[in-house]
Amino acid sequence: MNPATFYDREYFEGQRRQSPPHSRRLIYPLAERTAKYLCRRRIPDLALDLGCAKGYLVEALQACGVRLVVGMDVSHYALSHCEASVKGRVLIGDATYTIPLQSSSCDLITALDLFEHLADPLPTLREIRRLLTDRGCAYLKICHPRHPNAHRDPSHVNVQPLSYWTGLFTQVDFVWKRIYETEVTGVVTRLDRCKSLVRLVREWAVIGNPADYKFLLWKQS
Question: How far from 161 is each of 81, 125, 129, 213, CA to CA, in Å?
């Protein structure tokens, strides 16, 4: 499979996989929620979104006040369908090769729904580590092997259990923390907290359809 040609209009508009199209209506609310979570404690100066697709997370991070956000994706089609305000901030590139940014230049790197597409994740993890500042962190969202979409997307070539991913993080000298969906969503009222606790237990115990794996990574000090 040639990724530059595979991730085309048919892929992103839901014609090559049994999934909804990669539309603003579906994806931007998720990107906005993720951006708000990542900027809750500290707004990064420079963020990089790997596998940015149509740039919705780039746009959401900008809206949260991140000074400079760069997106990178292998798909010409996806990048050509970014919003006008984002197009100047995205570049074509393959995350399994050297990323054209200076070492220790990013204090936030995101990769949502990217790693299940990589037969060998190690080069990308090493690049993420190279690019992160000492205080920076990476946020990864990776398909859970029991998620309904895990195997019906033909580009999911590396769907693995938790131990596989955490083993790779340790191999690349990352400190890692698993994040649960309820932490990203945030809670406000007492009822929210109760619902959040139920979701947390269900996700931890893999009851029903599990949410994707989510991780924060930091450089080993």
Answer: 33, 17, 22, 9
